[in-house]
Specification:
two-stranded antiparallel sheet, alpha+beta, 6 strands, 20 helices, about 10% strand, about 475 residues
């Protein structure tokens, strides 16, 4: 089983990458602290409890609707992620970072996407992986001498399988647009809400799009196999990780999908083999002393603040057996959950055990653009009206009100959280969202522009439908909500 072992340095590199993504994600989310996490925003706690909550969810972010409390929780989570980055009391702060992330996700599920699920899942399995034994303050403070960098445990297998679910699992959920007529990327790149302008150049070449769709489908289906080839496994593993990095870079350059590409890359770095990490360390040898000195400085600072002294490791055979048994159960549980998502599977996961998935947020479905690509597209117009009858679009207040298609729909969104929110906003099942967003937008505008106070706001969605073979679809004007004075 040597070819299934992991390199502790690669796992440590993954730890640092994931911690960085956690801090970046918190920074982006903090710009919408009131909008998404307070009672004066678009999802107050009572509304969340009624429409966007599962009774098995756990969230300390739901203890208060004050944005000040949310800010405090954000700062705490950021602090935990910083300590995870430098590897100080790594396993403890892995657990705390996972718990804070789970709590944050449960507070507002309307802005989550697949990358959030991936980040949360890998962080969960990492609680059982000693990814703080290299490149960490724990090693410096503990004065450990680690000779063997290889690691093979039940938890590392769980992590590897989780990566497989993202790609092969996603491919198995895809339908005919991906694996028969290969039109999926044509429809994907036709979605103006997520497609960057560069995709317009590719869309003009139907043959190229079909080839790219075919390549994307078989990449997802087959790339995890590279991690299980016993012959020249280092070469195949490196190739698999590099292919995943290239795949996510391409998606990040063409589609407005937030941090998903960074999360995908960060979570794959732990698979890198020892041969690659040897090369990596040799390339960074000149910076090694500087990096060690920096880590040592952070370690001493954290040590003085928290005043923790590493204790000698004591083995508890019974506890280890219980942990192993629990991990094996969770691996089977998560596999069954993913297997149950497949259309051709008749037997589904027993409802008696689904509470485990919801409480630990092990529930997952990797149906990105599956089984078929979403066809509804369009853009929003926030038509405000003042007391004297002036009407204008709050998104373009200095321009005459127009219902024509803007040059860039992607550019209308502040970040991917708002894009995902708007995607959920148009669904008929989410009617409860509409009034709160309308009133929130109206109030925020009037607070910032008292000289242009609006009495009425209409949320309008200009809906387009993606038709096959480049056929034109005339936009349809839908007024989703109107809030009055």
């Amino acid at each position: 089983m040597n070819y299934l072992s992991f390199d502790k340095r690669a796992l440590a590199l993954m730890r640092m990458c994931i911690a960085f993504v956690l801090m970046l994600d918190l920074g982006i989310r903090a710009t919408d602290l009131e909008a998404f996490y307070s009672n004066t925003g678009v999802l107050p706690l009572p509304v969340m409890a009624e429409h966007a909550w599962n009774p098995y969810y756990i969230s300390i972010h739901s203890i208060s609707g004050l944005w000040q409390v949310q800010l405090f929780l954000f700062l705490v989570a950021f602090f935990f992620a910083m300590l995870l980055f430098i590897g100080y009391r790594t396993q403890l702060f892995t657990f705390l970072s996972w718990f804070m992330l789970l709590s944050l996700h449960n507070r507002n599920i309307l802005i989550l996407q697949g990358g959030d699920d991936l980040l949360r899942m890998v962080l969960f399995w990492a609680m059982f992986i000693p990814w703080g034994e290299r490149y960490s303050c724990d090693r410096l403070l503990g004065n450990k001498t680690i000779v063997n960098t290889k690691l093979f445990t039940v938890a590392t297998i769980a992590y590897l399988l989780q990566v497989c679910y993202i790609y092969t699992g996603s491919a198995l959920l895809k339908g005919a647009e991906w694996n028969t007529d290969f039109t999926a990327l044509y429809y994907t790149y036709s979605l103006d809400q997520i497609a960057f302008p560069v995709t317009k150049y590719w869309s003009a070449n139907p043959g190229f799009l079909k080839s790219l769709t075919c390549a994307a489908y078989y990449f997802e289906l087959l790339v995890p196999l590279l991690f299980f080839i016993p012959i020249k496994h280092a070469c195949f593993r490196t190739a698999g990780v590099l292919l995943i990095i290239g795949f996510h870079c391409l998606n990040g350059l063409t589609l407005f999908i937030g941090l998903f590409p960074l999360i995908g890359i960060a979570t794959a770095t732990g698979i890198l083999p020892a041969a690659f990490m040897n090369w990596f360390e040799n390339r960074l040898r000149k910076l090694k002393r500087t990096i060690i000195a920096s880590f040592h400085g952070f370690a001493l600072l954290a040590h003085r603040i928290i005043r923790w002294k590493p204790k000698s490791e004591i083995e508890y055979p019974l506890l280890d057996k219980i942990k192993t048994a629990l991990l094996i159960f969770l691996i089977v549980f998560v596999f069954d959950w993913n297997f149950s998502n497949l259309n051709f599977v008749n037997s589904k996961l027993s409802d008696r055990f689904r509470f485990i998935g919801y409480s630990l947020r092990l529930d997952q479905n990797w149906g990105m653009f599956a089984p078929n690509v979403f066809k509804n597209d369009g853009w929003f117009i926030l038509e405000g009206q003042t007391a004297n009858g002036e009407t204008f679009d709050l998104l373009h207040p200095d321009q005459p009100l127009t219902f024509s298609k803007p040059a860039s729909i992607v550019g209308m969104f502040k970040n991917d959280r708002w894009r995902k929110y708007s995607e959920n906003y148009i669904f008929a099942d989410n009617l409860f969202m509409r009034g709160y967003f309308c009133n929130f937008s109206k109030r925020k505008w009037n607070e910032k522009h008292p000289d242009r106070y609006i009495t009425t706001l209409r949320v309008i969605f200009m809906e387009e439908f993606s038709l096959p073979d480049y056929k034109y679809s005339s936009p349809v004007k839908n007024m989703l909500w109107e809030c009055l004075e």
